[in-house]
Give the backbone structure.
Amino acid sequence: MTRIRIATSIAFALGLTAACGQEPAKTDPAKTEQAPAAAPAGKKEHVFRGKVEGVDPKAKTLTVNGENVEGWMSAMTMQYSADKPDVYDKVKVGDQITAKVYDGNFGTLYDVQVVK
Ligand SMILES: [Cu+2]
């Protein structure tokens, strides 16, 4: 499911990407379409930074070239979903963004902000 570029996949193929692309454990697609996903309670929060390389409002995915997030994920380009549906309208290719991410959830960006 995860589209990782060849260059990064070579570097990270040996185990580091094992957790990436995992769907959040309790995601209900019908629900997330209606309401913002609640931030996971009690999970460690990390600050995510990256550059948007693709936006697909229909599929509700963002392809983001993310910087290394210590203890969460290595630097890589992959697809994420956003916590709120309006993010796909707000964010454009080339935007630098920040977001909140949580331990155990490697597929969702919360509180996405475009860095001006
Ligand atoms: Cu990843």
